[in-house]
Specification:
The protein is mainly alpha-helical. 85% of the residues lie in helices and 0% in strands. Helix 1 crosses helix 8 and helix 2 packs across helix 5. The radius of gyration is 18 Å and the shape is globular. The chain starts with a helix and ends with a helix. The mean pLDDT is 92.
Length: 185
């Protein structure tokens, strides 16, 4: 279950149909993305702060919100530039972002609706700027890839921890998960 961030990125690109045309469109609109990044961060963190549990995580350490805003602006811009054409550096950075979410306790139940907030707000911004729906679709696809990295971090960290603690093999672990899921229906 050990993840190769580059292979995962390539798999997600294929599954989500994130195309060269999407990449070109995002790159062509990178300046616009940068121009709204701080506003997007404000919407994103205002949404998260409404949740008591998330608000505690966001404000658990002095200066965390300032750092998170800076990180969000950087992350948002990277979706438009692709850093290295959405290659190894991009994939490794997304994997690290996923691990940080796991480490500080931001669960999928918070990440998924928060990403939806980003996609919805971008749609509003695009409309008011008179930009194409194709750009919204391209940004939606890369957001879903980024979301997949965060979700996969939970899977990888959890499964590795269980296997390390129990000595189970990967095939046994997968069989137990499948059996357990079937029993919960």
């Amino acid at each position: 279950m050990s993840l190769s961030s580059q292979a995962f990125m390539q798999t997600m690109e294929a599954r989500i149909s994130f195309s060269d045309a999407d990449k070109a469109l995002l790159k062509a609109n990178a300046a616009w993305g940068s121009s709204i990044a701080l506003q997007m961060a404000e919407v994103f963190y205002a949404y998260l702060a409404r949740d008591r549990e998330m608000n505690q995580i966001l404000n658990a350490k002095e200066g965390r919100m300032h750092r998170l805003n800076e990180t969000f602006v950087e992350w948002f811009g990277e979706m438009f530039t692709g850093m290295d054409d959405w290659g190894i550096a991009y994939a490794e950075r997304r994997w690290r972002i996923g691990l940080v979410h796991v480490q500080i306790g931001i669960g999928p139940q918070h990440v998924v609706p928060a990403m939806a907030t980003v996609v919805n707000e971008v749609g509003k911004q695009l409309k008011s700027a008179g930009l194409s729906e194709d750009l919204r679709d391209a940004l939606g696809r890369i957001c879903m890839i980024d979301l997949a990295f965060i979700e996969q971090a939970y899977v990888e960290v959890s499964s590795q921890a269980v296997m390390r603690e129990t000595g189970w093999t990967e095939s046994l672990f997968k069989r137990l998960i499948t059996t357990g899921a079937a029993r919960m229906q």
